[in-house]
Amino acid sequence: AQTVTQSQPEMSVQEAETVTLSCTYDTSESDYYLFWYKQPPSRQMILVIRQEAYKQQNATENRFSVNFQKAAKSFSLKISDSQLGDAAMYFCAYRVDGGATNKLIFGTGTLLAVQP
Amino acid sequence: NAGVTQTPKFQVLKTGQSMTLQCAQDMNHEYMSWYRQDPGMGLRLIHYSVGAGITDQGEVPNGYNVSRSTTEDFPLRLLSAAPSQTSVYFCATTRPAGGYGYTFGSGTRLTVV
């Protein structure tokens, strides 16, 4: 069964600094997608970044980038120039491409605090 | 363009009561799902649907019932509420292929006393 593990329940970063959130996953599939979602105190789930497993190039969205290591089944999120608005719960998630279920499997989350 | 609309946003139930959480999407997506979020456990899949008339169980289906009569609506029913069902519930939708991200509703915070 596919699993997603986030080993850091909480992290803290100073404003303007860089922080990296860790995520590992377990799967026997070759085609899949990985995501990072942000959940601020408003509770809304916001898609931050998406990575296609067949692409070796790491995805980037403005200050957010990933380090995708397929062989190691690792998918970390780097936030550069951290801002107060980045404070949130961050979830790593995995999805198999196509198929009947399209399930999105989540890790347990990392709560990020940003210190002014 | 509302995306995914969940109602209500908050609800308090007494043990044994029943209720329906509503979910509606205007994105014309075939796939819809319900998750519950509990502290330290992430989001866990309750039920999902790959199209009108087709539903299946997820990871934690006990105590919940779903139906899908239209593409747009996917209600979640709590048959006899228990304190263990105190949680935040999310409805989500996505396209069936292509690895698209999910679009989530704003969530329902349910407390069972």
Outline the structure in words.
The complex is a heterodimer of chains A (116) and B (113). Chain A contains no helices and twelve strands. Chain A has strands at residues 3-5, 10-14, 19-21, 24-26, 32-39, 46-52, 60-61, 64-69, 74-79, 88-96, 104-106, 110-115. In chain A, the strands form three sheets. In chain A, strands 2, 5, 6, 10, 11 and 12 form a six-stranded mixed beta sheet that branches. The mean pLDDT of chain A is 93. Chain B is mostly beta strands. The A-B interface holds A 4, 6, 9, 32-33, 35, 37, 43-45, 47, 50, 52, 91, 95, 97-98, 100-109 and B 31, 33, 35, 40-45, 48, 50, 56, 58, 88, 90, 92, 94, 96-99, 101-102, 104, 106-107, 109.
- Based on CA atoms alone, the radius of gyration of chain B comes out at 13 Å
Overall 3D form of chain B:
globular
Distance between the termini of chain B: 36 Å
How confident overall, as mean pLDDT of chain B? 94
What oligomeric state do the depicted chains represent? Answer: heterodimer
Biggest sheet layout of chain B? 7 strands, mixed
Fraction in beta strands of chain A? over 45%
The chain-level structural class of chain A is: mainly beta
Number of alpha- plus pi-helical segments of chain A: 0
Average pLDDT figure of chain A = 93
What's the structural blueprint in terms of helices and strands?
The complex is a heterodimer of chains A (116) and B (113).
Chain A: E1 3-5, E2 10-14, E3 19-21, E4 24-26, E5 32-39, E6 46-52, E7 60-61, E8 64-69, E9 74-79, E10 88-96, E11 104-106, E12 110-115
Parallel strand pairs in A: 2-12
Antiparallel strand pairs in A: 1-4, 3-9, 5-6, 5-10, 7-8, 8-9, 10-11, 10-12
Chain B: E1 4-7, E2 10-13, E3 19-25, E4 31-38, E5 42-51, E6 54-57, E7 64-66, E8 76-78, E9 87-94, E10 103-104, E11 108-112
Parallel strand pairs in B: 2-11
Antiparallel strand pairs in B: 1-3, 3-8, 4-5, 4-9, 5-6, 7-8, 9-10, 9-11
